[in-house]
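Handout, page 2. Input:
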Amino acid sequence: MRSAPRFLLIASLLAVGACTTPMAPIEVTRFHLGEMNERGTVMVEPAPGAPTGMEFDMYANAVAGELNRLGFAQVDGVGQSLYVAIVDVRSGTRERMGGGSPVSIGIGGSTGGWRSGVGGGVSFGLGGNRGGLVVSTQLSVQLKRRSDQTVVWEGRARGEAPARDSGALPGRLANALFRDFPGQSGRTISVP
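Output:
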């Protein structure tokens, strides 16, 4: 019966090690001309020279969703909107630094009497290898008034995630960028 509590301890530690790594906070900087009280229609477009394709579409859709949540109605007709949201996405990958897990379990025993003994142990890491690829992305958005091309709001959000979790970056970056819209102008904040 004594092995049951030890087994439960080992099983719970293994479960903790299998949890996904929490993602780093998003760094957000915004600039604007004042309160953004006027809402209206908006068209999302890529910035000149911005890479387009499936990855861009994921970010453009995330930006459109956040603008819609804030009361901007998206239109697809060229020249039909009050605002234009110019979206630029720049991504790169790097190798994650680090080795094995900082947590290990030791299982051992000893034999012998008072002042003597022989011991042995087995140790293994939890959580797997901490290496691998990390995706770093910057999402930049300019909100322009179509009539005179004045930039009334702009912002950028930078974040990173392990490559296996990078599909969550478009939503996380867009949400962080437009949180508490329009935000404090000229200040960089960290959004969890």
